[in-house]
Write a structure and sequence with these properties.
Blueprint (H helix, E strand, L loop, with lengths): L2 H14 L4 E6 L7 H8 L10 H4 L4 H8 L4 E10 L10 H8 L2 H16 L6 E4 L35 H8 L10 E10 L1
Antiparallel strand pairs: 1-2, 2-4, 3-4
Helix pairs in contact: 1-6
């Protein structure tokens, strides 16, 4: 299958398997910025020292080098309505918003699998926001292994990806902060 047709097929599969929006973009349009990773640490995100995928994500410098090896990316979004705007940490609105992140996570896994079957051996996916496959991650200091090592994916933000700007570059921007709907993003890098 020609590359361009394969990319389009993956986009179609994304929409078929639950993406509300999907867009292909050149990997060169993936914006990586140290300030995004900095926001994981200042102020300290509640997930940073408690989530394996955030804590052990590739650093920004390494990620910049990695992205340069890819041709194209598939950005996918799932959209979930909200009862009201996201409030401060600890509020039910935050818990509800995080709970709706799992579908995009599973979608990224599915797209990676499909791309691998098409012959894209270096396909790699990332999710927006922290991995929420488990209610409580084992965490980086527990000496325990990830419960879902083949499903868990690093956060786009943890590797320095500017999710909002990437979505804008892909033609599918979303509202920040979330007020009426929460939009979860995932990205699949394809060679």
């Amino acid at each position: 299958m020609a590359r361009k047709k394969a990319y389009e097929k993956l986009k179609e599969l994304a929409l078929k398997h639950g993406a509300d929006r999907a867009a292909l973009l050149p990997a060169s349009k993936i914006v990586i910025d140290d300030r995004i990773r900095l926001k994981c640490q200042v102020p300290l995100c509640e997930n940073y020292f408690h989530n394996l995928m955030c804590f052990y994500a590739p650093d920004v410098e390494r990620m910049e080098k990695i992205v340069k090896k890819y041709r194209i990316a598939l950005l996918v979004q799932t959209v979930h309505s909200m009862k009201g705007p996201v409030q401060k940490h600890g509020h039910d609105s935050v818990t509800d918003a995080y709970a709706s992140s799992v579908p995009v996570h599973k979608l990224v896994n599915k797209l990676e699998e499909e791309a691998m079957m098409m012959g894209f051996g270096y396909v790699t996916g990332f999710i927006g926001g922290p991995c929420k496959l488990c209610k409580n991650c084992v965490g980086p200091f527990s000496n325990k292994k990830c419960r879902h090592p083949f499903m868990a994916r690093p956060s786009m933000e943890a590797v320095g990806m500017d999710v909002a700007l990437i979505a804008k570059n892909a033609g599918i921007p979303f509202e920040v902060p979330a007020v009426k709907e929460v939009v979860w993003n995932g990205i699949v890098l394809i060679e």
